[in-house]
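Request: Have a read of the protein record below and say how the chain folds.
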Amino acid sequence: MLTVDDLTAEVSATRRLVYAAADRADLIAFVGGARHDGGPGGESYSYPSFASTVQAAAAGLTWRGLRPRDVVGVMVPDAVSFAIAMHAIRAAGGVPSPVNAALCAVETAGQLAESGARMVLTSPPLAEVALAAADRSWVRQVFSFADAAGTTRFSDLLGLDMIRPSRGRPEDVALLPFARGKDDRLRPVPVTHREYMEALDRTAESAQITGHDLVLAMAPAGDGLEYTTLLDSALLCGATVVAVRKQEVAMAAIAHQGTVAIVPHEAVAVVPGRLRVLAVS
């Protein structure tokens, strides 16, 4: 039986989350938004079911050839798929590299090629760009959270086995975002497990999300680092996250009694005033 001290000592946010899930059987981690393509973004997950999906997907990725420290591109349009992808990759010992959905196929291919990614996790409507970018990079396998021609269904990764999350060392890379420099070029900014946990601590202190919060989360934004730390801060404290699209925020705030919203800066104006806004640059 893991204690609170054991969880605090973990340098992997994924291991902390998976182990904490066992004591949260009655808590909902994610409520998916309305979707018509059958992807996980439209499903809801308790904390234990989220953790088991992450571990099953990690096993599937391992069976498909993912090795420790391999980079995997993540290009998905909703918070649920994003969290599953990020933690599944990390649980398998890989390094997730979030891809900004606003990038064109050429820039996406450049990021994938420079990172050395051999796999990509995506979902419609981003799958077409992900496939085009894969053809111009080292990527050999593209998995989609919903049907997309030319991809392998994410569900094919599940049911093979389950593995316990990899134990990351403090100086191992936990996340590989790409940031745009003053010269307008995208460059990798590797974040170690130690650095990521420090960023999580800072985010927890500034965001002040608690287990009593209902967090509305729009699609991933920016280079992925700030968005990831906000999402993980919510999950690590036991909050419920509701995946929403921009046009759904006001209605979702009422329907789910939302208290916090994670949104890109350009969408702040559509957030109802009663919600505490956490804007992602």
In short: The CA atoms of residues 214 and 257 lie 7 Å apart. The radius of gyration is 17 Å. The chain has a mean pLDDT of 93.
